[in-house]
Specification:
The complex is a heterodimer of chains A (about 120) and B (about 110). Chain A has about 120 residues and is mainly β. Chain A has strands spanning about 5, 10-15, 20-25, 30-35, 45-50, 65-70, 75-80, 90-95, 100, 105, 110, 115-120. Chain A is built from no helices and twelve strands. The chains are: A mainly beta (about 120), B mainly beta (about 110). The interface of A and B includes residues 41, 56, 89, 104 and 107 of A.
Chain lengths: ~120, ~110
């Protein structure tokens, strides 16, 4: 079946413009994550959606960043008034929660999308 | 302060060598993931661990919860194993994932 898809694959924008990045998770996956990977840096957690629960926005770097997930499926990450330091690869991942397990309340494997490379000039 | 530390940062090996990448973490975790990022940027989840050991082909991952340490082993390494290997942990206190900075592996034919 189809994996996680993201669009656009590349985006070049001018400083101050708004951008929207889209993520289509694997069908049936209830959990969706957004991450950012800046050049030469490690992955950075941004935001997490799980089912109909309120999203965990603790990783968003500023109030210029927002994300929504409509109908529990597609998610859009919006960056307003982009800055040059926003240039990075934005990765989306989805996973299926399983109940039970000897160590934790849940188990999950995350499936990553190919990412959107954002360049802010 | 990094919640997840990996070592080594860079590793070059000859084809066929046994490789070990280490990951130490400082937070309480519900699961630990090993990820592989290819030169083109795509990320693949290799393992998710909460205890013990898992094996998939030439890859073996172990975790010691008491010592807060995990290792990823590659047996009979091959040039196609060349990639960045990333350790990630999910905190028990929230939905946060913390990532190591990755180990860049190059396997020379």
């Amino acid at each position: 079946g189809a994996g996680v898809s993201q669009s656009p694959s590349n985006k070049v924008t001018e400083k101050g413009k708004d951008v929207e990045l889209r993520c289509d998770p694997i069908s049936g996956h209830t959990a969706l994550y957004w991450y950012r990977q800046s050049l030469g840096q490690g992955l950075e957690f941004l935001i997490y959606f799980q089912g109909n629960s309120a999203p965990d926005k603790s990783g968003l770097p500023s109030d210029r960043f927002s994300a929504e997930r409509t109908g529990g499926s597609v998610s859009t990450l919006t960056i307003q008034r982009t800055q040059q330091e926003d240039s990075a690869v934005y990765l989306c991942a989805s996973s299926l929660w399983l109940s039970g397990g000897t160590f934790a309340r849940y188990q999950e494997t995350q499936y990553f999308g190919p990412g959107t490379r954002l360049l802010v000039l | 302060k990094n919640e997840v530390e990996q070592s080594p940062q860079n590793l070059t090996a000859q084809e066929g060598e046994f490789i070990t990448i280490n990951c130490s973490y400082s937070v309480g975790i519900s699961a630990l993931h090993w990820l592989q990022q290819h030169p083109g940027g795509g990320i693949v989840s290799l393992f998710m661990l909460s205890s013990g050991k898992k094996k998939h082909g030439r890859l073996i991952a172990t975790i010691n919860i008491q010592e807060k340490h995990s290792s990823l082993h590659i047996t009979a390494s091959h040039p196609r194993d060349s990639a960045v290997y990333i350790c990630a942990v999910r905190s028990t206190t929230g939905n946060q994932f913390y990532f190591g900075t990755g180990t860049s592996l190059t396997v020379i034919p």
